[in-house]
Amino acid sequence: MLLFAYLILYFLLxxxxxxxxxxxxxxxxxxxFNKTDNAHGFNGKVFTFISFLELIVVGIYAFKSEWYEYLxxxxxxxxxxxxxxxxxxxFLSLIVVWISQSQMANSWRIGIDENNKTKLVTNGMFSISxxxxxxxIMIANIGLFLAIPNAFTLLIISLSTISINTQIRLEExxxxxxxxxxxxxxxxxxxxxx
Length: 194
Hints:
By secondary structure, the protein is an all-alpha fold. It has helices spanning 2-26, 39-63, 80-104, 132-147, 151-179, 181-189.
């Protein structure tokens, strides 16, 4: 139950609240995934699927424990030490994502915004990683897997890894076009992940 409550809180803070704050401040909807069949639109659908899959898997774990065996648990790696590590990773993720979103300020988007000009953010967390928000999300996915190790949380990590790496490359191409040499210089100094 605690894990489900944390997941809901996580989504509310880093997606819903952050989106509402940006929209209220700028009038811009930060959700930029389109409904087209291009790579960006498709990736938005994959992100949505992963989010619903997380809610379903954690919901089963929290409220329908008798169904948990159908998620193909990896019972042999369930132990109290990994459970403590999972919570450390989940809280670390929330901190990294929240701080990174705060440092992006009005430039933060969910996806690629080709309609509204933003500035290139290179300070704070972005001086350590070009993608600290995605890094934080991956940390959360690993934490979730350690909390409830099963075939579906492993699938979440796998799909997220592919989808996030695809999104990063799409965003890098956009940033190269948008900021040209400024982005290229930044990319030389700061690694993609860490």
